[in-house]
Amino acid sequence: MVAFAIGSSLLLLFLAVPVFLVFGVGSSMVAIVGLNLPWSTLIQVAFGAVTKQVLLAIPLFIFTGLIMLRSGVARRLVDLALALVGHWPGGLGIAMVLTMGFFAAFCGSILAAITAVGTIMMPEMIKKGYSRTFTVTLAAAAGLLEALIPPSNAAIIYSSLTGVPVSHTFAAGVFPGLVLMAVLILLVLWRCRDMTREARVSAAGRWSAFVQAIPGLMTPFIILGGIYGGLLTPSEAAAVASIWAIIVGFTIHRELKFAAIWSALRDTAVTTSVIFAIIATATFLSVVLTYTQAPQHMTDYFVGFGANEITFLLIVGVICLILGTFIEIIPVFYLTVPIFMAVATTLGVPLEHLYIVFTAFAGLGLLTPPVCVGLYTAAGVINLSADKAFKELPLFLAVGILYGVLMIFIPGLTTWLPSLL
Q1: Phi and psi for 112 in degrees, rounded to 5?
Q2: Sequential pLDDT tens for the chain (421 residues)
Q3: Distance between CA atoms of 105 and 223, rounded to whole angstroms?
Q4: Among 30, 125, 355, 415, which residue has the fewest nearby CB atoms (within 10 Å)?
Q5: Residue 153: is it exposed, middle or buried by C-beta count within 10 angstroms (0-12/13-18/19+)?
Q6: Where would I find the H helices in 193-308?
Q7: From CA 26, how far away is CA 7, in angstroms rounded?
Q8: What is the rounded CA–CA span in Å between residue 189 and residue 92?
Q9: Which residues are within 8 A (CB) of 15 and not within 5 positions of it... i.e. 6 or more apart?
Q10: What is the DSSP string of 233-254?
């Protein structure tokens, strides 16, 4: 029954059926016809999944990021990054990676970050002689920082699936996110080593850029400080951050308009509806897994196979890499986490470590066709056909796979910070 549910879902996916229907149709058929469950059971489970209090943080973080973009915060973060590293080899590319990292610290939405930062940086990079295909691929790859550096929508969803505190999942992504940022910077330094360097910004110019960026830089301290200080839940921190973003836009930068708030609300509603539709229908598969005891059977198989932690995580990485090629990262979580969480617990793999392995490999789906939603988003910013950027993929995919393997073999990068909480 599980094989039929997954097989029918993959078939619908290849037929370009929307992802929420991919989950809903196959799994509901198995649940109703094969397991004789009433519709009411599926509806109750779906309702319970989308009404978890922690998920309220998702639309609020998305809204915060969109307001930050419309209030000029994103542009000021770009100016700060350019002032700091613009004179390095490939300085504009490095500045885009750094800005993605800054933006990740208060947005949480991968596509919002690619659009926000890419709209500012990508035309400037192309004007300065950077390859259009390299620029698009770099922007899509840097978008993965949003899934690692807290706050992250992926971390919130993973916590809702596993029961791991959001504060722990957030903490697990800090060092892996910084390592990924360093890896991308090294890649840009090597790839753009022969490009003409920009002039160094004076000390006064760097200080001015820093002062202008202070309101934006304060946002992560408001969010994470409130959470780790025990003052705010993740949802409350997201709400406070959204209010702070509006205050910054109206009273500090004075660039935010009421029309921009309405636009941000509309875009937040669209993005959130997509995410929550997937969450609701993906729970149908969870019902099938529960009634067929598939996680227990999978655990018995791995234990009988004699798999250790490393072998298990390598298998998880390969599966997530393959699934990420066809499915976005959030559906991959709902498809795999309920199965592999039980195996990880039995083998003694920390669930925070499992989260990073899932994210590192499934996140490569931002780049890999046919879905490659990150690549399509970045290409759309500059009206480039995404398939023209495919020639840049081998280098980025090789680096991404090496990064994922590194995360498997160095669990301390993931587990040390959560262990202090």
Answers
A1: -65, -40
A2: 666 666 666 677 667 677 777 777 777 877 787 778 888 888 888 888 888 888 899 899 889 988 988 888 888 999 999 999 988 999 999 999 999 988 887 776 787 788 888 888 899 899 888 999 999 999 999 988 988 999 888 899 999 989 999 999 999 999 999 999 999 999 999 999 888 788 899 999 999 999 999 999 999 889 989 998 888 999 999 999 999 999 999 999 999 999 999 999 999 998 888 888 888 887 887 777 777 776 666 777 777 777 788 999 998 998 888 888 777 788 888 878 888 888 898 889 999 999 999 999 988 888 888 778 888 888 888 888 888 888 889 999 999 999 999 999 999 999 999 999 8
A3: 9
A4: 415
A5: buried
A6: 203-228, 234-247, 258-292, 294-305
A7: 8
A8: 11
A9: none
A10: -HHHHHHHHHHHHHHIIIIIS-
Q: Where are the alpha helices (DSSP H) in 128-152?
A: 132-142, 145-148
Q: Is the peptide bond before 370 cis (omega within 30 degrees of 0)?
A: yes
Closest CA to 61 of 217, 239, 213, 230: 239
CA-based nearest residue to 199, from 288, 86, 281: 86
Which two three-digit tokens encode residue 195? Answer: 């490009």
Q: Which two tokens stand for residue 115?
A: 């659009």
**Token pair recorded at residue 242:** 């959204």
Contact 65, 223 (CB under 8 A): no
Pick the closest to residue 400 from 341, 326, 313, 317 (CA basis).
Answer: 317
Distance of alpha carbon 244 from the chain centroid: 23
SS3 content of the chain, % helix, strand, coil (to 5): 80, 0, 20
Taking the domains of the chain in order of start, what are their residue ranges? Answer: 2-419
Evaluate whether 68 touches 105 at the Cβ level (below 8 Å): no
CB-based contact 198:85 (threshold 8 Å): no
Residue with tokens 């722990």: 168
Query: Among positive and negative, which fits the CA dihedral 271, 277, 279, 280?
Result: positive
Q: Give the C-alpha separation, 346 to 349, whole Å.
A: 8
CA distance 397 to 23: 27
Q: Which residues contact 24 (CB under 8 A, 6 or more apart)?
A: 281, 284
What is the CA 303 to chain-centroid distance, rounded?
A: 31
